[in-house]
Design brief:
Layout: H1 13-31, E1 36-37, E2 41-45, H2 48-63, E3 68-72, H3 73-79, E4 87-91, E5 96-97, H4 99-112, E6 123-129, E7 132-137, E8 141-144, H5 155-163, H6 165-168, H7 172-178
Antiparallel strand pairs: 1-5, 2-4, 3-4, 6-7, 7-8
Bound molecules: flavin-adenine dinucleotide.
Flavin-adenine dinucleotide binds near residues 122 and 151.
């Protein structure tokens, strides 16, 4: 799903990145002829409590500069007869894509630029020395000028590997690097 950024706190980096990311994703899909649809999304409230939260979200859409339409129960039924709810917000900017197709294309471009993909190998040590960064994985070692760590929810662990040199002191790899 290509999110419009409904939920994020106004003026936050998440709100800004979500909007910029949606535009960049659509531009990438257009440029590389990848599938996408800007089909919109319905955020449905199924009970009174959710209806209250839905109104707060609707206000947030306005604060985030996202066009949204408030539907009452009857309007929701007219638009989507198979959906049962007390009301809904229609967000036209939300879209869909085939993210696997996007990553395949990114890999193609990365390889064309000289990049190499290794899968099924885990980063277990990082040491910086001089102008180089040494990365040890479960089956090999790499040396590079820069390291970009994109480990998602594990990013803090990767950052920690880089900071805690004392931990590496006990491993052969670090012993080699530090002499
Ligand atoms: C159920 C679910 C549905 C979602 N749906 C959407 C959606 O519709 N639209 C949307 O925009 N976002 C969605 N998201 C959020 C989206 O998946 C994340 O925001 C996005 O994947 C983050 O990308 P990332 O590259 O930062 O991290 P990730 O995609 O998490 O990638 C991090 C990678 O690092 C690898 N890694 C971690 N530690 C190591 C290590 N030590 N060595 C080697 N590799 C390592 C992991 O295996 C992983 O492959 C969804 C998330 C979930 C959980």
């Amino acid at each position: 799903m290509i999110h419009a950024g409904v939920y994020y706190a106004p003026d936050s980096l998440k709100a800004r990145f979500c909007k910029e990311g949606a535009a960049a994703t659509l531009a990438f899909c257009r440029e590389h002829d990848l599938p996408w649809q800007q089909c919109g999304k319905l955020l449905v409230a199924s009970d009174a409590q959710e209806l209250q939260r839905m109104h707060a979200l609707f206000e947030r859409c306005g604060q985030n500069g996202i066009a949204a339409e408030l539907l009452d129960e009857a309007a929701l039924h007219t638009r989507e007869p198979d959906i049962v709810g007390r009301g809904a917000i229609y967000v036209a900017a939300t879209g869909m894509t085939d993210y696997a197709a996007i990553t395949r294309k990114l890999l193609e471009l990365f390889r064309a630029a000289g990049g190499e993909l290794r899968t099924d190998t885990e980063v277990c040590g990082i040491v910086e020395r001089g102008d180089s960064v040494y990365v040890r994985t479960t089956d090999s070692e790499f040396r590079g000028r820069y390291l970009l760590a994109c480990a998602g929810a594990m990013s803090d662990r990767i950052a920690h590997m880089q900071i805690c040199r004392s931990i590496f002191a006990s491993c052969r790899f670090a012993a080699n690097i530090f002499g």
